[in-house]
Amino acid sequence: MDDAALVEAVRAGRRHVFGTLVERHQQGILRLCWRIAGDPTDAEDLAHEAFIEAYVKLAQLQDPAKFGGWLRVLALNICRAWYRTRYRLTTEPLDDNLPDDSHPPHPRSDQLRGELNRLPAQDRLVLVLHYWEGLSYSDVAAFLDIPIGTVMSRLHRARGRLKGLMEMEQMEMPPDTEFKREVDAEIHALMTLFGASEMERLSVLLEKSPERFLDLIRASNEEEMREDVAVLLRRLGRSGMEAAVSAYLSDDPAMRANALEVLKRCFTRPKTEAEVSPPATMAWREAYWLADALIRSAPDATRKAQLLLDLLERCPDDSTQLLLVNMLTSDEGAGFNVLVARVLQATTVEEMWRSPRAVHAVCRFGSCWAKVLTALLDAGHSEEPPIALAAAEALGRALRSEWLEPEERTPERLALQTRFQTQALRWTPPDPNLRDPEAMEALAARVAAYVSSLDPETRNMAIRTLGLFGIERYRETIRNAAGHAATPTRTTALRALAAMGDDEASPWVAKALASPEEAERRAAIEAATALSLSDLQPEITQALDDPDRDVVKAAIIALAAIGNDSAQVTLRNLLKSPDQSIVKAVAGAMFGGARGQNHLVHSGRARTIVVKPANRPGMAQLIRGGAKPPFYMSPDAAILALPEDRSYGELELTKFISQLCSDYSGTRRCLVSERLMTRQAGVYEFTERGRAVWRVEHYLARR
After folding, report:
1. What strands, in cross-sheet order, belong to the sheet with 683-686?
2. Which residues pair with 151 in a beta bridge?
3. Which of 219, 359, 407, 509 has a CA that sits 20 to 30 A from residue 179's CA?
């Protein structure tokens, strides 16, 4: 079908046919918007608005065969309005007498695009309007509301800067499979709101009447409508999310239920390619809009906490999960109570671990959680308390904070790592103020009572937990368990002795090394490695002849950890083994690791950077002073470093963010590319999204 037939079909009520028009003209409109905006995200937003405007005004199109040219004019006028707002200019709309944009892209378009995007916005725009869109000098002057002479001088200057690359080429936008879906979702929403009456684009409607989004949520009783509203929620930003939060916190049960379902769908989506690629992997923008709306909404703390937990358990993105956890645990009352209820509603340990984020998050409350578990483990309440014991073991792992380097365990460093490092989603140590030794001692005493349990799982959980707590008075209890009749209990006890750092455990480890049980021998060697029991080197060396391959590999690692001359000789002889798996294990134990390197953090992801020694301070040292930034590049952490919601000069901005990010120049670029700030003439200003991130991060810092 040609455009005219498709237009008539849509006018006749076949809404879904409009999707064919979207597919047919999507690339051309996206290219047009990209040339004008110079940014793919802005271009996608502008193109989306253009197609919605076309649907809303389709009845005004006099000649359906000219749909392509008419759509292009609509897109240009929407770009005009955007440009006017962005650069505070007054412009006039164009007429409908522009040709369709149908010629194919030139093979050198990628090269030209790179050059074009380096131009100042005003110079780029006159080139795009005149050469690509075919506007005359007078049309460009009307578009920008500037004299024709200014148009000509800007064109001359821009052509010179392009260094001869100015040709009649076109640029292609990368394909976006979600674009058509988003357009269709908004059309469905508009039909729900307006029926057959005159429509407006949602962005225009919500700017005038944000409460109208509540009508959409109220009407979201069917699966299709909920999915569509969730898609729109991600696109509409602050106004849409504020309306959704308002609906969720309302007194209308049906409205609350619909809002919850829409929000769940909004956060239950796969990551896009841009969201999983460096240089920045922040929480999703809708998560910051949500957090900001919750902070500024009515104080119904329990309902807010329940929403955060529901979204946390469905969201697939680590960085977004981290923000939700930080919000949830910022309220020591409602957040704690909701997490406790979720963990304790489980009837088995397996069921408890189906909500791993809830288990990890509640451990952040330290002694508060310990007191709850102590009461649950009271002998008068339960004889076989697997849930409480498993939760106590999780708390013990959190207290160990093994994923943090020792120098990062100061309260200030811990607070930063907990906020911005995705490893904090597991075993995050509680705030020092929530680590009451008496509460931990009381919990350990309850746990110790279950070491004598007849149930092996209960007994072993109790032993593991005591080892993690590392309390001296229970050392002998664990040593005794190392002589238990059951092999799993003996191996558990050996690992618990290693966990609590019992460097006098050689007799128990030596006895286990002579065990006929492979699992026990392997656990003994692992314990000897962890405890650096060099006095057991002969026994460990003998284990190299063990028939169990895992025992042999554990012995290789243990000898590498001992590291004395005789251990080195033994390992070097093994490098001559004809068994390549043994050679590989020895090489990994002797030469593996990251010697001479620093492990820094890149937006929640570990990145290894080789640091060259310097004989004198460089520019970076002069800028950041004596600070040792914990992150490599992290725009959300950089936002926290900025003390006020205001504009910043480049040098001032650099000094602030260099305190937290070692690659401060890359982080500056991320602040712009992530649309948190704009940069004009060396001055950085917050965008609307940036202000939301600033409010959320500083709210969390105050908590």
Report:
1. 648-649, 683-686, 677-680
2. none
3. 219
Tokens of residue 212, six digits: 């109208």
- The domain boundary, picked from 131, 161, 191, lies at 161
The CATH number assigned to the domain holding 633 equals: 1.10.10
Whole-number Å distance between alpha carbons of 368 and 431:
11
The rounded distance, in Å, linking the Cα atoms of 97 and 164 is 30
Q: Rounded to an integer, what distance in angstroms lies between the CA atom of residue 218 and that of residue 631?
A: 44
- Cα–Cα distance list, 449 to 369, 378, 419 (Å): 19, 9, 36
Distance CA 421, CA 667 (A): 16
Q: State whether 236 and 369 are in the same domain.
A: yes
Residue 661: phi, psi to the nearest 5? -125, 120
Q: State the helix-helix crossing angle for 437-448 and 386-400, rounded to 10 degrees.
A: 140
- Per-residue pLDDT of 405-425, as tens digits, reads 777 778 888 888 888 888 888
Last residue of a domain, one of 132, 161, 190: 161
Q: For residue range 368-401, what is the model confidence (pLDDT) as tens digits?
A: 999 999 999 985 545 558 899 999 999 999 988 7
Joined tokens for residue 63: 């000649």
Give the helix ranges, DSSP H, for 402-486.
411-420, 437-448, 456-469, 475-481
pLDDT digits (tens, 9 = 90+) for 631-686: 888 999 999 999 999 999 999 999 999 888 888 888 998 898 888 999 888 899 99
Closest of 376, 377, 344 to residue 358, by C-alpha: 344
- φ/ψ of 283, rounded to 5, equals -60, 150
Cα 209 vs. chain centroid, distance in angstroms?
32
Q: Specify whether the CB–CB gap between 134 and 100 falls below 8 A.
A: no
- The DSSP H or E segment spanning 111 is helix 109-116
In sign, the C-alpha dihedral spanning 462, 464, 468, 474 is positive
| Residue 417 backbone class (left: φ over 0; alpha: ψ -120 to 50; beta: rest) | alpha
Does 279 sit behind a cis peptide bond, omega within 30 degrees of 0 on the bond before it? yes
Quote the number of domains for the chain: 4
Residue at 195 is within a domain: no
Instruction: Give the SS3 label for residue 632.
Output: strand
Higher pLDDT, 198 or 527: 527
What percentage of the chain carries pLDDT values higher than 90? 39
Query: Dihedral (C-alpha) 63, 64, 68, 70: value to the nearest 10 degrees?
Result: 50
